[in-house]
From TrEMBL:
It comes from the Bacteria. This is S9 family peptidase. InterPro entries: Quino_amine_DH_bsu (IPR011044).
Amino acid sequence: MKFYSIFIFIALTTTQCQAQDYGKLAYEMTFPELLEENSGITLSKNGELLYTINDSGGDPSIYTIDLYAKEIVQEIRLSNGKNVDWEDVTRYENTLYVGDFGNNDNNRKNQTIYWVENIEQIPLGSHTAFAKATTFTFEDQEKYPPKKKHRNFDVESIIVHQSYFYLFTRNRIPDKKFDGTTKLYRVPMKEGPQTAVLIDEFKTCSDRDDCQVTSAAIHEQTGKIALLSYNKVWILENYTEDHFFSGDVTKIKLEHSSQKESITFKDANTVYISEEASKNDLGNLYTLDLKNSK
């Protein structure tokens, strides 16, 4: 297979500079140039594979990394998908969900969530897959784009909980008005056009460069939720129903700032975090020990 011989066994860089300070993060691997704009990660059900995507303008493809071998072993290209601005990916049971809802300018009317079913039955190598799709609009957005002081309709984060999609916004309000508010929307987990219903808001912090939510993850067994920014993680737990901000919220400062765009749970007390490439370096994959980082 051509894909196998040329591409699939490109090993990910595993060497690192010993002097590099990663703060509270533990280095796992460096992504190849192919994934320099990786914007979402999620684990396979058995925890051995990491599914990842690139953001705006890339191929409509999901790439699979074998975490033991530290190499790409699969590309799944969506036959009916388009990568306008893919920003996050999550898995529930054996279905993978890809969020094409990046909306930096707050002017999109075509946000889409793609569903790839039976993801773990797709063989390794290069394949195409047909995806179901959910499209949505925000119930409280009337103008495209709205005035700058209302530009909080960019989404880079998705989780699945009790048959709904939950979306957290990345606040794009200019500096003078920025207060760190992320809005939480609920979308029925159904195909076709849906309405994103605003159900809550939460103020992360007031530094625009470091308080925008770029990814989210949920631990299926405990319900623990993680929100990510460039230098922080917020852990939400002990909440009631889908009032995620009603329980305990713990803020963890990572002590390492970079363009972090992706988070997923490895287990109840550990998360994987990845970053996009910078001008001089490729992006890395890290782990964060939640118990010993508070």
